[in-house]
């Protein structure tokens, strides 16, 4: 059975590497201010990218919980923790989330499998133009997956998610995510080859 989001609602912020989202902390601060200024009964839970060193992660503002599992792993040198307890911790975090905020993360697909909305950051330092990535185009078209083009846009879309405005799209969202996660459209091979060919046409990467 599907897990039920916790109450009060939880806004999960899934971080990326510094190359993708340099001002990640500013988005976290925007959400913390929104919750505080609007008196929302919601919590902000921040999970920086496993490969992001602690020196690049600012102390979270009041009202924001920094993922304790990330802190523990960072103290050990960082990187992905693949033991059963760590994987279960990540699942519990998503299963209790009301909405996901990220610049890019495979957690978007995981949230979609739960029928939950995601808000993709489409502004700020280091954020790539996802519409130019062939494999991202289907995800951007899923119901319940929105792109925030500004801090005000972020606040509006997250507030909508907290208000349940994306709930009607849950079944369609699950269906779309299930097709991709299980490669039910049988197009995974073609998408991988097309992406490799695109990279080859762009020439060697600068070192």
Topology:
Layout lengths: L9 E5 L9 H14 L5 E5 L16 E3 L1 H8 L8 H12 L3 E4 L4 H7 L4 E4 L15 H4 L4 E4 L2 H12 L7 H12 L6 H14 L6
Parallel strand pairs: 1-2, 1-4, 2-3, 4-5, 5-6
Descriptive account of the structure:
By secondary structure, the chain is α/β, with parallel strands linked by helices. 40% of the residues lie in helices and 12% in strands. The protein is built from 8 helices and 6 strands. Strands 3-2-1-4-5-6 form a 6-stranded parallel sheet, sandwiched between helices. Helix 1 links the parallel strand 1 and strand 2 (43-47). Helix 4 packs across helix 7. The protein is globular. The mean pLDDT is 79.
| pLDDT < 50 runs, ≥5 residues | none
Distance between the termini: 47 Å
What is the overall shape? globular
Mean pLDDT: 79
Percent helix: 40-55%
Main beta sheet: strand number and arrangement? 6 strands, parallel
Report the portion of residues in β strands. 5-15%
Q: Radius of gyration in whole Å, from Cα? A: 17 Å
Our count of helices gives 8
Widest sheet: strand order?
3-2-1-4-5-6
Q: Determine the structural class based on helices, strands and strand pairing.
A: alpha/beta
Written as H for each helix and E for each strand, in order along the chain, the element string is: EHEEHHEHEHEHHH
- Count of DSSP strands: 6
